[in-house]
Amino acid sequence: MYDSFNRNINYLRVSVTDRCNLRCTYCMPVCGIDTLPHDQILSYEEIVEVVKYAVLQGVTKVRITGGEPLVRRGITGLVQSVASIGGLKDIAMTTNGIHLNRFAKPLADAGLHRVNISLDTVDPNKYREITKLGQIEDVFRGIDAAREAGLDPIKINCVVKVSSDEPDALEVKKFCESNGLGVRFIKQMNLETGQFSVVEGGDGGNCASCNRIRLTANGDLKPCLFTDLAYNVRKMGVEEAYNAAITNKPACGSINMSNQFSNIGG
To answer: Which residues contact 245 (CB under 8 A, 6 or more apart)?
Structure first.
């Protein structure tokens, strides 16, 4: 399906939860977040219904995100259900990697194709400082497990303050080159001020060629990360909400005062 700017919308990002087992400083506000009540979070059956409709409209790529998707119970079953939908060419997941050592093989067996893993430094102490709760050794084990499970390619998402020339970013790049991993550098964004840029090593942030919409954990279909526009599939129905999101997708992102990165899926 094409939007009003003739962009082919073939990519759906699905946030399955607003909860996370880390507290990264650039993602979680200092005051913390109020998590959604469980009855406001879409069931897996509802998510599959949205994905099925999206595929009928031309979506060929789905990425499962959070929060942290591996903290939601039954996530492997969702992947299996999504993988059974004919027409999808790419099923990916973005994860912090903490639980990936346990989940990599079951996810691959269920039909997941590949993973992006968040890693902003390879220094254990700095990693703990950034994430507040994480142990970097868990991420390294997750990377190894993903490779063994055949989740390929494995890409590393590295958030930088200004550029990929920063010391931690350079160390992450060196680590990725030594271990056969792809790397994407993502400049720190701000939803409220509309601060974003094109991802180095990826295509995110390029509004002119944006091909994606987002489904939040509470059922909002958002045509753009940097907008307050949202169309809820429970209130409007899947077809009406989906068509509204495509029709009203803006030419370029502006600001988003309604969400945090922790509940929109990045």
So the answer is: 213, 221, 222, 223, 229, 231
